[in-house]
Design brief:
The complex is a heterodimer of chains A (about 140) and B (about 280). Chain A is of the alpha+beta class and about 140 residues long. Helices cover about 25% and strands about 45% of the residues of chain A. In chain A, the strands form 3 sheets. Chain A has a 5-stranded antiparallel β-sheet with strand order 1-10-3-7-8, covered by helices on one side. A 3-stranded antiparallel β-sheet of chain A has the order 2-9-4, sandwiched between helices. Chain B has about 280 residues and is an alpha/beta fold. Chain B is built from 14 helices and 10 strands. Chain B has a 5-stranded parallel β-sheet. In chain B, α6 packs parallel to α8 and α11 runs parallel beside α13. Classes of the chains: A alpha+beta (about 140), B alpha/beta (about 280).
């Protein structure tokens, strides 16, 4: 059993957006040397998410609009105050709540040194409070090829 | 749109070139978030629809032995993007402060002065220390942004930042253009009184005490001042300021938009008033 982990930086460019990270995940699997195992993708932030869906612009827009309907910006959230631990206003409750709804990770089987995913499945890094420089991890665990 | 109140304390390129900046930002300014590339700052402006932003350093040499971003670092930033407007900061407790301000404006090309009496720990109406700095700012014909009211900085002392202390300054330097930050919260009424009484006093919108920026701004302005007062009496004396990175510029923009100001007033707050302050007297309408 071997483990290969990479920490990948990504510059987001908008308040909310979905970024296709599928090629980066595939590349880490290829570099890992793992033949049979599993790949895990995790975001390192609480106002971002990892999700998987069909890579279509209309669905991306629909997903962001669904989140805005489920977690309205103007509701009276408790998380709306100065956070001394950060030294800045913590006024992004909707971003955190959307992150909780979508989740922070995904995983896929690895077989014959390649990720096993459906042809329509796109791995997204979801920015929910950008723009910021963000990071996520890709870890491949399994038996060497 | 112009953001009149940005602290470039999180710019990774500045931290990489100046190891002392990290301590100043964390211990003195009180921001604990990790640095971000300069690109993120510019993208933040994009997210808020902001064209230009004023970069504010704070010279705390006497009070805390450091600068929370120096004049030279601000000058470097303005060289990286034409969207960034540099202000200077000098330490009024140092006798060379007026000369340092002259160098920052004439030598480095900075276009205004930032003073934070709470963090720099000087009295705004100190005739020996502060008045020579105001005199130089008046001579240089530059606007002066003054922190007033609540200071989120761990070493800030709000009592030194009471806006009423500026009245003697305004009367002594009648051509000096002052911008009182944060609507002076919690001394909003006193700040507005100054602006009503003295046309050379402007106010920035970065009110942040609790709740979202929209809630803070609405509560401060509607309960203490009244939006009609802004429109009737102060329409040329309010400038938009985000106070980034205490809060994201985009949310500060949303907060002002949610006030429901008339389009003409909104245009003045977001752009025209700041543009007039930044222009030399000879170029102002």
């Amino acid at each position: 059993m071997t483990s290969h982990l990479e920490r990948i930086g990504i510059q987001t460019t908008a308040d909310r957006q979905l970024l296709d990270i599928t090629p980066a995940v595939r590349a880490v699997v290829a570099r890992s040397g793992v033949g049979e195992g599993r790949v895990f993708v995790n975001t390192l932030h609480t106002t971002t998410a990892i999700t998987v869906n069909e890579g279509l612009e209309d669905l991306e827009d629909d997903l962001l609009e669904l989140l805005a309907r489920l977690v309205p910006a103007g509701a009276p959230y408790r998380h709306a105050r100065f956070l001394h631990a950060d030294g800045q206003m913590a006024v992004n409750a909707p971003s955190h709540l959307c992150g909780a709804l979508l989740g922070m990770h995904t995983s896929f089987p690895v077989h014959a040194g390649r990720i096993v995913a459906g042809s329509r499945q796109t791995v997204y890094f979801v920015e929910l409070d950008g723009p910021l420089h963000r990071e996520y991890t890709v870890q491949v665990i399994g038996d060497p090829a | 749109m112009i953001d009149f109140h940005v602290h470039p304390v999180q710019v990774a390129e500045l931290h990489a070139a100046d190891p002392a900046l990290d301590r100043a930002v964390r211990d003195v300014f009180g921001l604990q978030m990790p640095p971000q590339p300069l690109a993120t700052l510019l993208l933040h402006l994009d997210a808020g629809g902001i064209d230009h932003a004023v970069m504010l350093p704070i010279d705390c040499t006497t009070a805390h032995g450091c600068t929370v971003v120096s004049n030279e670092q601000v000058a470097w930033l303005t060289g990286q993007s034409s969207r960034l407007i540099g202000f200077a900061s000098v330490d009024p407790s140092l006798p060379e402060a007026p000369a340092a301000l002259e160098h920052a404006v004439r030598g480095l090309g900075l276009r205004g002065l930032k003073l934070d009496p709470a963090l720099q720990q000087f009295r705004l109406d100190d005739e020996v220390r502060a008045f020579p700095v105001y005199a130089m700012a008046e001579t240089l014909d530059i606007p002066v942004l003054v922190h007033a009211g609540l200071s989120w900085a761990p070493k800030g002392r709000a009592a030194l930042a009471h806006p009423l202390a500026l009245e003697r300054v305004v009367q002594t330097f009648p051509r000096l253009r002052l911008v009182v930050a944060h609507f002076g919260w919690p001394w909003v009424a006193e700040t507005v009184m100054l602006a009503l009484r003295y046309p050379t006093v402007s106010v920035d919108t970065s009110v942040l005490f609790s709740g979202t920026p929209a809630e803070s701004l609405r509560q401060a302005l509607t309960s203490t001042v009244g939006l009609d007062t802004l429109d009737r009496s102060l329409s040329r004396q309010i400038v938009f300021g985000s106070n980034y990175p205490r809060v994201d510029p985009k949310r500060a923009v949303w907060a002002v938009r949610e006030l429901g100001l008339r389009p003409k007033l909104l245009r003045r707050v977001f752009h025209d008033n700041a543009a007039a302050l930044l222009a030399p007297t000879s170029e102002r309408p």
